[in-house]
Batch of 2 targets.
Target 1
Amino acid sequence: MDNRLLELTETLNLYLSPMKGPLFLFVCFVSISISLSAQKPNTSKLDKVLEKLEQRNQLMGSLAFSKQGISTYAKAFGYSDIGSNAQADTLTQYRIGSVSKMLTSTMVLQLVSEGKLQLSDSIAQFFPDWPNANTITIEHILRHESGIFNFGTSSKPITASPQSREEIIAVFEQAPVAFAPGTQVDYNNANYVVLSLIIEEIDQRSFAESLQDRILTPLSLNRTHAGGPIQTGCNEAHSYFWKNQWIKNRDNYHPSLLGAGALVSTPKELNVFLHALFTQKLLPAAQLKRMMTLKENMGMGLFAFPFYGKTAYGHSGNIDAFESFAVYFPANQVSFSLCLNGNRKEVNEVLIACLRAYFGK
C-alpha cells in the first residue's frame, strides 16, 4: 500500500470515530411516549447537573439549547486552557469532529438545488481514475454507501503526510475497494473528505471559502471556521484527558480532514445552523426532505435519534478527545448542542442527564 495511503488511514483513524454513544442514548427512551412540546425548560435542574459534574472534575466544555431560533439556555464549565487558567465561556470554540458532516452535506445539497450537481451523478466526472468511479454516485457518498476504502478502520503506521489536494486525490486513487457501491451502508469518514474535494472542484475555491460564503456569512457565524491549529488567544479550547489530573492533548490538526471532521464552532452557533437548516433557510424543502430520508437510520450527513416519543436529527463527533453532539427536534423547534474538551464520564450519561434535566424528566 502506498505510504500516502497509510498516513491518511492513520490520520482518520486517530481523529474521527463513527457513531458511538449518542445513538444508544436516544434509543433508551424510544418506547416512552411523552409530549415534549408542552414542557418548559428546567434550567435550574440543568444548572445543578452541570455544577455537580464540574465540581467532581468530570466534565469541561459548553452546551446550549434554543427554541424557534432563540437561545433558551447556554452554559460553559471548566477550562479552555488550564495552563493559563483560562475559564471556558459560551464564546469558547471547540473542534466538533464529525458534526462537521452536517455542514458539508448541506453544502453539497445546495449545489444540487442550484443545478450544479445531481445526486445521481457519478464521481467519474471529478475523479475518473478512481476505482468504481463510474458507479459511485454523489448519493452513495452522502449516505456512506460508496464502498470507498474505510480509512478509519486501519491500524497501519504513519509514514508520510498528504497535505495538498493532489496528494489526497492520489491516495484515494490507489485505495482498495471495500464493497460494490449501493450494496451496503458503512459509516466511513473518507466519504466526506471526497465530498469536500467535490465542493472545491465545483465552486473553484477552497473548502474553507465555500463554507464561509455558503453558510457562515449568511448566518453570521463568526465563531465557526474550517479548522486549523488551536488558537488559544482567540478563545479556542484545548482538549484534555484524565490521569489523576487533566492532561492536555497535543494539537494534532490535519488539513486533509476538511469537511469530514475539521470544523471548529460553539454550541450556540451550532444551534443557529440547526435552526436555519431545518427551517429551510439553507436548503429548499425538496433537498431538506432528501437529507432527512433515512436508510438504516442514516440520512445524508445526519442520523435520527428517538427521545421520549419525539425524533431529533443531527450528528455526533469525536476528535482527539473533543466530543460534540448537535441535534434538532423538528416537532418542537428545539436545538441542542454540546461541545466537550474534557470528559471522564460516558458521553451517553452526560447527554441523558442534560436532556432529562432540560425537559423536566
Target 2
Amino acid sequence: MTRCLKLMHLEKLSMCMSMLKIANGKVQMSSAGMPPIFIYKKDERVIEEHVIKGMPLGTMQDFPYVLKESELNTGDSILIMSDGFPELLNDKNEAFGYKRVRNLFEEHSAKSPEDIISVLRKTGDEWTNNAEPDDDITFVVIKVK
C-alpha cells in the first residue's frame, strides 16, 4: 500500500489503518499508525490492550509491520477506534485519554456493539460539553457470537 501511495505522487499523503482477520476462534491484528485495539475477554473479565506500533502507510518504504494474534470466545468484545476520541479535550484542556477509554469499554462491554458506541459517544459529548471535536472520531465494536 505504501508503494502504491508513493506511485500516485500524492506528496505528503499518508493513511492510518487497523486490519483484523477473525477466523476459527482467533483474531489476527496489524496496524499502521492507529491507537491500541482493546479486547474484552468475557470469561476472564479482563481487557487485553494491543499496542501495535506501525508507521502510517505512505511514510516509510519496507516498514516491518507486526502481526499479533489473540484467542476469541463467545461474548468477547473488540474495540477499534481512531485517535480523535482519546484526544478529546475538555474545557480545562485535559485529554480524555486511553485509560478512560479502556475503563469505559470494560464497564460497558457486556452491552451490544450499538449500545457500547452510544455510551462512548455520550461520554465524549459530556467530556467536551457538546463542543465539536478537532479530529474525526470513529468506533468499530465487534461482539463475538
